[in-house]
C-alpha cells in the first residue's frame, strides 16, 4: 500500500512513453489522475502499518522499510497535491515526456519521505535528482546547460556524502533501518564516529535545503525549471533536507546536532537575511520567490536547531505552509509568464485591471507568504518565534523578525510590480485565468486557509520527533516546558498557543512511557 | 607406458576444467561451421554455437558448486571462487557475441568468433589458476587471441590498436614473468598455496618479485599509472572486442590478483606489500574519471571510466577481508551488466562506416528512441553509482567494507571519484535529452542486427535486480589450505 505510493507513479511515468508522442492531453490527465489518486490514498493511509522487505543482511541490515506517519505524512500529502495541481496547468512542448518526468519525480520524492531505512532514504535522495536534471536540460529556456550541471554537481556531492555517512552508520550500528526506531534501541556511538556521520548528513541536508553558503544552485534552478516542476521542487524537494535534520538528525545523531546548533543557527540567520535582501533586489519574479524560499527555510533551520518543542512543531507547519504557498506562487507566476512572455517585474505592471482573477490568486499566495494572520505562513512563523524566544534565543528571535518584516516588502513588491500600477501598452493582452487554472489553484488556496486556521493536526504530527527531542535532550521532564503557565505571559496570542502547546504536551505524555 | 601417462590426472581433474574445455572445443566447431555452411549462415551459426557452448559451460560450471578441490596437483583450484569468475566470463562473452554482427567482415566472422571463444577459455583458466604457470598459460591464451581480434576493424586505428596492445601487453607479461621467476627463486615453488601456507623466508628477492608480479597485473587491469594503452586500444578495436576486453580481461586478471593478494596476507609482510596496490586503486579512481571528462568518443570514455571502475573493485579488496572479496565480485558482476548494456546500446546505434560510438550519435536519442535512451540512462546511472541500480548497491557495499577494515580514506577517494564521474556519465544523458534546436540530429537507421536488443533487455533487468537483491556470493575461498 505505502509502496504503491512510490512505485505506481514511477511505473506510470515510464509507461507514458508508450503513448504516442501526440497524446499530450491524455498523458496530462493520466498524470493528474495518478497524483490525486496518490493524494487520496496517502490521506487515508495515515498510520498504515509499516511495510518492510529485506534488502541487505551483510555487512549491515538494510530493509525496504516504508512507513507513513509523523511529519512525512503531511509532506507526502503536500507533494501529491502540488504535483496534481501543477500538472493540471502544465502547458509545455513535448508534454508527454514532461508529465512522465513529473510522475517519476513524484514517486522518488514520496520515497524520501516514507523511507524508514537510511539506505532506502539515500536511494530516493539520489534518485530524485535525475528527473530534475533531465527536465532542466530539456526544457530550460537557456541554451547553456550550466544550471543543470550546477544543480546536479551540488546535489550529487551532497548525496554522495550522505551515502558515505549511511555506510558508516550501517557499519557502526549494524543496521540502517533506524528512522523512527524507538530511542535506546541503537548503540551509542563514539564521538568521532557520530561527528563524521553527522557531518556527512548535514552537508547533504544543507545543500538540499539550501542554506547559505550552499545556496547558489537554488535560484538558478528555480528560475530555469518550467513552472510546474519549479513548484514541486521548491515546494517539496527542498524540504528533504529539513526533514532529514528533523527526523534523522534529532533522533539518531542528537549529540552532534546539539554541538552544531550554534553554527547552524548562525547559518540559518545568514540565510534569512541574505535571502530577504536578495529577494528585495531581484527583478525576476521567479528569483524573488527563490530567494524568499532561502529566507523562509533559514527560519525553519533556526527552529529545528532550537530544539524547542513549540518551535519544532512550528517548523513542521511552516514546512508544509511554505510548500503550499511556494507552489502557488510558482504556478501563478508561470501562468503570467505564459501570457506575457516575461516575468521581469520591471516589464510587467497593471495586469490586475484586466485579469482580476489572476490578481486575486496571486494576492492570496503572496499574503500567505508574507505571513498574514489567518493564513498558513503566519501559523508557522508565530509558533517558531514563540519557541525560539522561549528557549532563550532572544537575539536570534529579534534578528529573525527583520526578514519577516522584509518579507512583507518583497512580497508586496512582487504583487504590485505585476498587478498594480498603470497598464503597460506593449504587453500582450490576454485572457484572465481560465476555469481550469482556477480549479488548479483552488486546492492549494483551500489548504493555505485550512492550515492557517487550524494547524493543530500538523503540529501534533510533529510529536514524534518532538517527543524524541525532549526525551533525549531536556534534563527536566518534558512536560514541564510545555505547560501554559510558562508559555502564557510570553506568548503573543497566549490563549491560542497555550491550547496548542497543551495538546502537544498531552500527546507527548501519551507517547513517552 | 600409456598407464603412466594417464595416471597423474583423473576424472575429477578433467571435470574441474570441463567448462573451459567446452568453450575451447566449441571454437573448433565454429571454424568447422565456417568452412562448410553457406556464406549467409556462417555468422549466425558461429554466434549461435558460441552462445550455446558458453551457456552449456556456465551450467556445467555451476554443477561444481559447493565441493571445492584442487585439480591437477593444485594447478587449478575448483570451487566457488573459480566458478563465480567463470560465470562472469561466460556472461560477458555471451553478451559480446550478441554484438557479433559488428565483428569483422562476413568472411572473417567465423575465425573471429572462434578467437573470442578461445580468449574466453583463457580467462576461465585464469579464474581457477592457482600456480604461477597456469596463471601465465591462461593469461597468454587470453591475450594472444585478443591481439588478432583488435586488428579486425578496417582502418589504421585498428591496426594501431592491435600493435599497441601487443607491445604493451607483452611488456606487462615480461614484468609478470620476471616477477614469477623471482617468486619461484625465493620460495622454490610455483604454487600459490606454498606462499599461503606461510613456509616462506621473508627476503627482498621475494618482495621484489611480488612487486613485479603486481605491476604486470596492474598493466592488464589498466590501473593508473599503467593505463596509457587502454583508451587507444579500446577506440581502435571493433566494438564487440572492446566490450569483451572491458570485462573478460578484467575478470580473469582480477581473479588472479585476488587469489595472489589473499595468499600473500598470510605472510608477515603481506599487507605491507599490498599497500601500493590500494594506492594505485585510489589514483585510478581519480585519474580515470578526470581523464574521462574530456572524451567525446564513447569507447574512449568507457575505457577511462573502466579504469576508475576497476579502481573501485580493487578498493573493495583493501584490507583483504573475506567480505571485501565478496563485494568486489559483486561489483564486478554489476559492472559486467551495466558496462555491456551500455556497449549493446552503442551497437544498436552503429551504422555503416560509423560504430555509433561518437557522442553525436546520441543527440536527441531521448525523443527518437525513448526506450533505448531510457535503457542507456539506466546503465549510466548504474555506472555513476546512482539508484536504483546494482552500481548503487555495489558502491555502498564497497564503502561499508572500506570503512569497516579501516581504509576510510579509500572510501573518501571513492566518493570524490564518483562525484567527478557524474559529469562524465551525465554528459551522455545530456546529449540524449537536451533540446536539439540547431544541432544536427543523426537519422535513425536500422541497425545491422536486433540481437543487441536482447543484451540491452537482459542487462537492464540484471542491473535492476542486482541492485534490489544484491546476490553477493558466499563461499568464495580463494585458496584451499
Looking across the biggest beta sheet of chain B, what order are the strands in? 1-2
- SS summary, helix count of chain A: 24
Low-confidence stretches of chain A: 466-498
Helix content class of chain A: over 70%
**Count of separate DSSP helical elements of chain B:** 20
Tally the beta strands of chain A. Answer: 2
Biggest protein-protein contact in the assembly: A-B, 41 and 40 residues
Structural class of chain B: mainly alpha
How would you portray this structure in words?
The complex is a heterodimer of chains A (513) and B (481). With 513 residues, chain A is mainly α. Chain A is built from 24 helices and two strands. Chain A has helices at 2-16, 24-43, 70-88, 95-114, 118-127, 129-139, 146-173, 191-208, 217-224, 227-237, 239-252, 254-259, 261-281, 285-306, 309-340, 351-354, 356-370, 376-391, 394-419, 435-453, 456-461, 463-473, 484-487, 494-511, and strands spanning 51-56, 62-66. Chain A has a two-stranded antiparallel ribbon with strand order 1-2. In chain A, strand 1 (51-56) and strand 2 (62-66) form a beta hairpin. In chain A, helix 2 packs parallel to helix 4 (95-114) and helix 13 (261-281) runs antiparallel to helix 14 (285-306). Chain B has a two-stranded antiparallel ribbon with strand order 1-2. Chain B has helices spanning 2-6, 11-16, 18-36, 39-62, 80-98, 109-128, 132-150, 156-187, 192-196, 204-221, 229-236, 239-264, 270-292, 298-317, 322-349, 365-368, 370-383, 390-404, 408-433, 451-468, and strands at residues 69-71, 76-78. In chain B, a hairpin with a 4-residue loop joins strand 1 and strand 2 (76-78). In chain B, helix 10 (204-221) runs antiparallel to helix 12. Chain B is an all-alpha fold. Chain B is globular. Classes of the chains: A mainly alpha (513), B mainly alpha (481). The interface between A and B is large, with 41 and 40 residues.
Amino acid at each position: 500500500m505505502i509502496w504503491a505510493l512510490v512505485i505506481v507513479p514511477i511505473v506510470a511515468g515510464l509507461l507514458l512513453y508508450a503513448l504516442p508522442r501526440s497524446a499530450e492531453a491524455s498523458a496530462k490527465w493520466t498524470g493528474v489522475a495518478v497524483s490525486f489518486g496518490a493524494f487520496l490514498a496517502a490521506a487515508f493511509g495515515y498510520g498504515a502499518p509499516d511495510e518492510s522487505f529485506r534488502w541487505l543482511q551483510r555487512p549491515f541490515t538494510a530493509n525496504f522499510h516504508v512507513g507513513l506517519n509523523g511529519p512525512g505524512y503531511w509532506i507526502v500529502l503536500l507533494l501529491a497535491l502540488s504535483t496534481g495541481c501543477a500538472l493540471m496547468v502544465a502547458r509545455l512542448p513535448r508534454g508527454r515526456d514532461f508529465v512522465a518526468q513529473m510522475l517519476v519525480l513524484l514517486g522518488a520524492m514520496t520515497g524520501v519521505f516514507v523511507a524508514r531505512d537510511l539506505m532506502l532514504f539515500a536511494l530516493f535522495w539520489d534518485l530524485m535528482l535525475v528527473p530534475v536534471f533531465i527536465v532542466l536540460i530539456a526544457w530550460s529556456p537557456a541554451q547553456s546547460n550550466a544550471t543543470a550541471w550546477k544543480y546536479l554537481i551540488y546535489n550529487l556531492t551532497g548525496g554522495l556524502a550522505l551515502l558515505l555517512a549511511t555506510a558508516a552508520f550501517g557499519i557502526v550500528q549494524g543496521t540502517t533501518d533506524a528512522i523512527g526506531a524507538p530511542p535506546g534501541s541503537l548503540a551509542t556511538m563514539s564521538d568521532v564516529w557520530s561527528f563524521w556521520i553527522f557531518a556527512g548528513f548535514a552537508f547533504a541536508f544543507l545543500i538540499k535545503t539550501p542554506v547559505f553558503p550552499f545556496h547558489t544552485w537554488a535560484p538558478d534552478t528555480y528560475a530555469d525549471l518550467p513552472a510546474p516542476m519549479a513548484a514541486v521542487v521548491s515546494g517539496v524537494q527542498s524540504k528533504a533536507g529539513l526533514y532529514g535534520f528533523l527526523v534523522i538528525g534529532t533522533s539518531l545523531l542528537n549529540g552532534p546536532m546539539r554541538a552544531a546548533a550554534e553554527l547552524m543557527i548562525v547559518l540559518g540567520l545568514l540565510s534569512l537575511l541574505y535571502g530577504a535582501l536578495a529577494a528585495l533586489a531581484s527583478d525576476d519574479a521567479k528569483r524573488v520567490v527563490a530567494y524568499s524560499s532561502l529566507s523562509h527555510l533559514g527560519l525553519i533551520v533556526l527552529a529545528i536547531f532550537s530544539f524547542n518543542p513549540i518551535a519544532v512543531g512550528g517548523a513542521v507547519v511552516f514546512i508544509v505552509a511554505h510548500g503550499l504557498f511556494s507552489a502557488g506562487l510558482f504556478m501563478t507566476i508561470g501562468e503570467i509568464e505564459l501570457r506575457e512572455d516575461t516575468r521581469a517585474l520591471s516589464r510587467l505592471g497593471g495586469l490586475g485591471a484586466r485579469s482580476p482573477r489572476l490578481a486575486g490568486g496571486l494576492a492570496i499566495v503572496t499574503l500567505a507568504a508574507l505571513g498574514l494572520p489567518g493564513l498558513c505562513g503566519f501559523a508557522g512563523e508565530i509558533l517558531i518565534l514563540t519557541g525560539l524566544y522561549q528557549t532563550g534565543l532572544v537575539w536570534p528571535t529579534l534578528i529573525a523578525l527583520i526578514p519577516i518584516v522584509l518579507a512583507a516588502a518583497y512580497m508586496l513588491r512582487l504583487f504590485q510590480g505585476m498587478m498594480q500600477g498603470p497598464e503597460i501598452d506593449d504587453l500582450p493582452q490576454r485572457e484572465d485565468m481560465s476555469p481550469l487554472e482556477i480549479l488548479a489553484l483552488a486546492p492549494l488556496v483551500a489548504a493555505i486557509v485550512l492550515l492557517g486556521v487550524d494547524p493543530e493536526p500538523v503540529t501534533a504530527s510533529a510529536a514524534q520527533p518532538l517527543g524524541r527531542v525532549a526525551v533525549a535532550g531536556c534534563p527536566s521532564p518534558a512536560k514541564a516546558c510545555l505547560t501554559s503557565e510558562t508559555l502564557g505571559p510570553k506568548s503573543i496570542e497566549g490563549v491560542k498557543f497555550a491550547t496548542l502547546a497543551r495538546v502537544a504536551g498531552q500527546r507527548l505524555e501519551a507517547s513517552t512511557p | 607406458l600409456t598407464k603412466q601417462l594417464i595416471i597423474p590426472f583423473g576424472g575429477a581433474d578433467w571435470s574441474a576444467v570441463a567448462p573451459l574445455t567446452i568453450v575451447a572445443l566449441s571454437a573448433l566447431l565454429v571454424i568447422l561451421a565456417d568452412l562448410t555452411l553457406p556464406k549467409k549462415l556462417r555468422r549466425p551459426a558461429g554466434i549461435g554455437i558460441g552462445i550455446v557452448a558458453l551457456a552449456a559451460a556456465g551450467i556445467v560450471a555451476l554443477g561444481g558448486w559447493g565441493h571445492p578441490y584442487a585439480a591437477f596437483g593444485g594447478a587449478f583450484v575448483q570451487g566457488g571462487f573459480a566458478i563465480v569468475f567463470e560465470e562472469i566470463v561466460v556472461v560477458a562473452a555471451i553478451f559480446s557475441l550478441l554484438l557479433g554482427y559488428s565483428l569483422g567482415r562476413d568472411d572473417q566472422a567465423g575465425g573471429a568468433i572462434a578467437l573470442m571463444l578461445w580468449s574466453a577459455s583463457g580467462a576461465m583458466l585464469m579464474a581457477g589458476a592457482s600456480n604461477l604457470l597456469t596463471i601465465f598459460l591462461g593469461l597468454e591464451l587470453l591475450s594472444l587471441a585478443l591481439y588478432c581480434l583488435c586488428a579486425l576493424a578496417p582502418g589504421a586505428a585498428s591496426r594501431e590498436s592491435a600493435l599497441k596492445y601487443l607491445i604493451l601487453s607483452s611488456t606487462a607479461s615480461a614484468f609478470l614473468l620476471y616477477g614469477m621467476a623471482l617468486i619461484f627463486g625465493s620460495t622454490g615453488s610455483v604454487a600459490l598455496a606454498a606462499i599461503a601456507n606461510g613456509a616462506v623466508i621473508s627476503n627482498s628477492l621475494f618482495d621484489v618479485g611480488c612487486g613485479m608480479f603486481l605491476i604486470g597485473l596492474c598493466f592488464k587491469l589498466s590501473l593508473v599509472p599503467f593505463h596509457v594503452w587502454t583508451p587507444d586500444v579500446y577506440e581502435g578495436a571493433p566494438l564487440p572486442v572492446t566490450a569483451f576486453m572491458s570485462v573478460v580481461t578484467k575478470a580473469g586478471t582480477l581473479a588472479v590478483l585476488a587469489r595472489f593478494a589473499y595468499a600473500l596476507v598470510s605472510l608477515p609482510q603481506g599487507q605491507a606489500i599490498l599497500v601500493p596496490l590500494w594506492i594505485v586503486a585510489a589514483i585510478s579512481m581519480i585519474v580515470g574519471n578526470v581523464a574521462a571528462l574530456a572524451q567525446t568518443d564513447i569507447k574512449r570514455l568507457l575505457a577511462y571510466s573502466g579504469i576508475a571502475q576497476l579502481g573501485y573493485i580493487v578498493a573493495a579488496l583493501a584490507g583483504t577481508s573475506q567480505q571485501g572479496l565478496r563485494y568486489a565480485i559483486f561489483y564486478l558482476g554489476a559492472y559486467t551488466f551495466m558496462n555491456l548494456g551500455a556497449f549493446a546500446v552503442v551497437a544498436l546505434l552503429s551504422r555503416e562506416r560509423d560504430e555509433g560510438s561518437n557522442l553525436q550519435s546520441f543527440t536527441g536519442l531521448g525523443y527518437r528512441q525513448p526506450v533505448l535512451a531510457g535503457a542507456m540512462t539506466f546503465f549510466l546511472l548504474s555506472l555513476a553509482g546512482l539508484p536504483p541500480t546494482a552500481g548503487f548497491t555495489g558502491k555502498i557495499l564497497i564503502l561499508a567494507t572500506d570503512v569497516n577494515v579501516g581504509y576510510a580514506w579509500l572510501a573518501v577517494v571513492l566518493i570524490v571519484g564518483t562525484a567527478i564521474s557524474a559529469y562524465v556519465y551525465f554528459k551522455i544523458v545530456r546529449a540524449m535529452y537536451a533540446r536539439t534546436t540547431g544541432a544536427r540530429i543523426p537519422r535513425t537507421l536500422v541497425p545491422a542486427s536486433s540481437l543487441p536488443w536482447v543484451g540491452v533487455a537482459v542487462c537492464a533487468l540484471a542491473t535492476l535486480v542486482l541492485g534490489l537483491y544484491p546476490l553477493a556470493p558466499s563461499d568464495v575461498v580463494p585458496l584451499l589450505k
